[in-house]
Write a structure and sequence with these properties.
The chain is α/β, with parallel strands linked by helices. 31% of the residues lie in helices and 32% in strands. It is built from 6 helices and 13 strands.
Length: 207
């Protein structure tokens, strides 16, 4: 199945910390970065490698390099909170940006900004959004990537619900989705229950 919930004690522990309403902005931001790095470490185990020759101070040997370039695609603004932890883990990656807002009348995501590195169609891409709720913004981001010829797409969210997962997979069954935790449901305001509130507000100290 394209849905994977990462079962790791440190991730569970850190998600519990950021659920707490007493967790302040600085700590929340730092822990989101840590969770993002832990998740990427887990899901990159199967990345393909190419052999290269390396000359050590002692002798020649065979080493390895990533076969595909990596591009992370944070959805503005909350997705930005996940980028730094992943960049520390994979410094060679490139960063695309997708900005969307929800139309007040249609409630559908509207694109207002998109910037992609050259050659993204040959890359392994990770869409970043801390919360996978309705799945509308993430699905719209997938459409933007596919328009540019990207075929290798993975969604990375810290917390999600089946409503959003099913929405995405019904339209894009070829996409892989990784969650740190699968929560119960959405409430009447499309917030994840129990969730952690508005990730963007908690990351950047806004209301």
């Amino acid at each position: 199945m394209p849905l994977h919930v990462i079962d790791h004690p440190l991730i569970k522990h850190k998600i519990t910390m950021i659920r707490d309403q007493q967790c302040g902005t600085k700590q929340f931001r730092e822990i989101v970065e840590e969770i993002s790095a832990l998740m990427v470490y887990e899901i990159t185990r199967t990345l393909e490698l190419s052999e290269i020759e390396v000359i050590t101070p002692i002798a020649k040997t065979i080493g390895y390099t990533l076969k595909k370039p990596i591009v992370i695609v944070p959805i503005l603004r909350a997705g930005l909170g996940m980028t730094q932890g992943i960049q520390h883990l994979i410094p060679s990656l490139k960063v695309a940006h997708i900005g969307m807002y929800r139309d007040k009348d249609t409630l559908k995501p509207q694109l207002y900004y998109a910037k992609f590195p050259e050659g993204i169609e040959y890359s392994k891409t990770f869409i970043l959004d801390p919360l996978l709720a309705t799945g509308g913004s993430i699905e719209a981001a997938i459409v933007q990537l596919k328009k540019r010829g990207v075929k290798d797409i993975t969604v990375l969210s810290i917390i999600g619900v089946m409503e959003g997962v099913n929405h995405i997979l019904s339209l894009h069954p070829d996409v892989e989705i990784y969650l740190g935790n699968l929560d119960e449901k959405l409430n009447d305001h499309a917030y994840i229950v129990p969730g952690l509130g508005d990730a963007g507000d908690r990351l950047f100290g806004t209301k």
